Amino acid sequence: MEDFLSYLSGEGYSKNTLDTYRRVLKYFHSFLDFYGFDVKNFDEEKLYSFFSVRYRTEKSFRTAMSAIQHYLKFRKVKRRLKFQPPDYGEFKEFRPIKEEEFLRLRELVLRLRSLDLQTGMLLIFKTGLSPAE
Fold it and tell me: Which pLDDT band, with edges at 50, 70 and 90, does 23 fall under?
């Protein structure tokens, strides 16, 4: 893995990209170890499922698959990964809420009778989590 990252560094990849690829590849190796696969022989459906837990937006999922694809190519493994994430409802791009919209939503939430529901909804809005998280 370090040879691959050194190669990318020599190709002019940014530090942020190298850090992202390092995280993805560590997670990829965790996947391989967990299932007992090797770099040349692994189940793509299990890979997508494993990665969809960690990479929850389509963009981050595609970035992770791209990093793995580059790594496999560097290792001379002939394999073409699908870049389409599993079709799950939680794969939605984050959309920042403008201040006036947030205040409007906050007013609606504060009208709810349940204090627990109010707290939960405000946390969802403030942290950007989906309700399932």
Answer: very high
Task: Give the other-Cβ count within 10 Å of 42's Cβ.
Answer: 19
* Distance of alpha carbon 110 from alpha carbon 102, whole angstroms: 12
Mean pLDDT computed over every residue of the chain: 81
Task: Give the closest residue to 55 by CA, choosing from 93, 1, 22.
Answer: 93
Q: How far is CA 108 from CA 2, 99, 118, 122, in A?
A: 51, 14, 9, 10
- Please provide residue 41's backbone torsions phi and psi, each rounded to the nearest 5 degrees: -135, 100
Compute the distance between CA of residue 40 and CA of residue 47 in angstroms, rounded to an integer: 13
Q: Whole-angstrom Cα distance, residue 18 to residue 24?
A: 10
- Judge if pTM exceeds 0.70: no
